[in-house]
């Protein structure tokens, strides 16, 4: 299997180090740790108090800030440029360019992951974990590709995206966005509204509501209620669990629950930050109340950089750019990890970690082996997270925007091949790569290639290793239907 050069790979182990308790009669099996991943939607780097936002954005985020103090906070956690690619990378440990999930699906072709892909939920389910998900999937809207056919025992949420909440409300909510009238506007006869599903493994998903603005406002409360129930139910039963909680906030339309509307006095965005912090706290409280806090790995992060559409623009902190680009404001996301007694509390690191690494690391935590019949780009970061080493097991990665290789990050350097400052700007292929020193130029304003051309060498090794692996394992094309069989080598 060909792997990307320039990236150091950590060793895999078959089981997390835990203490085995012995009785005089027989050895008890060690308890498998629980895993809770809270994935915010388009939460920019500069929104949370602990990342320089909070009150500066109109609402404090005390629960999330406290979580950062209880664990390790990363300053250089990187995601893919769009929602679907990031979620695909998390679920499979593979760069989305490999899986045909490198851009948000528009419609008209099969969308999402082929059934050939192996998800982290499938790996953990095979290790005896209860698996649950609540929120946006965005990795396939056909029934065979929905979460409960991809390793999750239960799911509540939407198959695609929250933009579609605006369709049924175009004429109902004129104060928010312009009405185009009945004659030329959206109609369910033309395009069906997005369903909200409730599903369990082995059963046909059941449509419980239609996504509209009213239901959009209540999604966070319902996601939290179901996640809390799942955590308490499985903790009570003594069953290890994987809770994947892809929250809806702060994706456009960025609207708070009516219980939070007007709470901050600083507008919808601040009200949403306040609600997001509160819902996060509810999940953390459930873990504690269930008595499994010390046995639970908690990850809090975001799938993308900030929103770019008025009036829901997000904040990218000290960086430049929005999602749908290869700027740092797109690639860097907030990231907090907590596991009491294992992950150092109060630690802050600027080491590079990529969202694909969560797949491999969580598999290690759960005692699962990653697939050996395909390239897995994620590296095991458990020793780094545990503080056993200061350096990440990754030095860099290629940054794709859709199917365009737009940049390469290596250590604290960025090499731009395509220039695009925000999602609405046209991408421009550069005649010569731009080299940016991210330590001295966080806004990516100064090309220092003339006297740092040496940076191209390690960057090109990353690209070369990726392209070499494509020869042995050709990328899956966007819109590939099932069943997919990889070409013989």
Automatic annotation (TrEMBL):
Q: What is the lineage of its organism?
A: Bacteria, Pseudomonadati, Pseudomonadota, Alphaproteobacteria, Hyphomicrobiales
SUPFAM superfamilies to which the protein is assigned, alphabetical: Alkaline phosphatase-like
The superkingdom of the source organism is Bacteria
* Listed cofactors: Ca(2+)
Source organism (scientific name): Bradyrhizobium rifense
- What name does the UniProt record give this protein? Arylsulfatase
Sorted keywords for this record are: Calcium, Hydrolase, Metal-binding, Signal
Q: Which GO terms describe its molecular function?
A: arylsulfatase activity; metal ion binding
**The Sulfatase N-terminal domain, residue ranges:** 33-367
Q: Which PANTHER family match?
A: ARYLSULFATASE FAMILY MEMBER, ARYLSULFATASE G
Tell me the protein family, please.
Belongs to the sulfatase family.
């Amino acid at each position: 299997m060909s792997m990307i050069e320039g990236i150091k790979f950590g060793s895999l182990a078959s089981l997390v180090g835990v203490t085995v308790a012995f009785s005089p009669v027989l050895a008890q099996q060690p308890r498998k740790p629980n895993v809770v991943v809270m994935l915010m939607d388009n939460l920019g780097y500069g929104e949370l108090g602990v990342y320089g936002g909070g009150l500066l954005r109109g609402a404090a985020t005390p629960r999330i800030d406290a979580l950062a103090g209880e664990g390790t906070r990363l300053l250089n956690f990187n995601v893919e440029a769009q929602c679907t690619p990031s979620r695909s990378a998390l679920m499979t440990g593979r760069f989305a360019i490999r899986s045909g999930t490198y851009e948000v699906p528009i419609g008209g072709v099969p969308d999402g992951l082929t059934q050939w892909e192996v998800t982290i939920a499938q790996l953990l389910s095979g290790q005896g974990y209860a698996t649950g998900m609540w929120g946006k999937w965005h990795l396939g809207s056909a029934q065979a590709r929905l979460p409960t056919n991809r390793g999750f025992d239960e799911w509540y949420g939407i198959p695609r995206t929250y933009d579609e909440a605006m369709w049924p409300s175009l004429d109902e909510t004129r104060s928010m966005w312009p009405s185009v009238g009945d004659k030329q506007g959206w109609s369910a006869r033309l395009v069906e509204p997005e369903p909200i599903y409730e599903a369990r493994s082995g059963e046909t998903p059941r449509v419980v509501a239609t996504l509209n603005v009213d239901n959009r406002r209540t999604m966070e409360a319902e996601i939290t209620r179901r996640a809390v129930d799942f955590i308490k139910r499985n903790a009570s039963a003594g069953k290890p669990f994987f809770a994947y909680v892809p929250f809806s906030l702060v994706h456009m339309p960025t609207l708070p629950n009516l219980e939070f509307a007007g709470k901050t006095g600083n507008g919808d965005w601040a009200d949403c930050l306040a609600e997001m912090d509160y819902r996060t706290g509810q999940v953390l409280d459930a873990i504690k109340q269930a008595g499994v806090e010390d046995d639970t790995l908690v990850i809090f992060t975001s799938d993308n950089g900030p929103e770019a559409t008025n009036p829901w623009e997000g904040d990218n902190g000290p960086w430049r750019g929005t999602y749908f680009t290869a700027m740092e404001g797109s690639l860097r996301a907030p990231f907090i990890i907590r596991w009491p007694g294992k992950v150092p509390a109060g630690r802050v690191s600027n080491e590079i970690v990529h969202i694909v690494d969560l797949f491999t690391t969580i598999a290690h935590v759960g005692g699962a082996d990653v697939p050996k019949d395909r390239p897995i780009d994620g590296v095991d970061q458990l020793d780094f997270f545990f503080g056993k080493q200061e350096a990440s097991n990754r030095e860099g990665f290629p940054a794709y925007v859709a199917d365009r290789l737009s940049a390469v990050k290596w250590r604290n350097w960025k090499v731009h091949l395509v220039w695009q400052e925000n999602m609405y700007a046209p991408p421009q292929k550069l005649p010569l790569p731009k080299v940016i020193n991210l330590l001295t130029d966080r806004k990516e304003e100064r090309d220092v290639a003339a006297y740092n051309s040496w940076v191209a060498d390690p960057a090109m090794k990353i690209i070369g290793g990726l392209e070499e692996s494509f020869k042995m394992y050709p990328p899956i094309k966007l819109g590939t239907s099932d069943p997919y069989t990889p070409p013989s080598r």
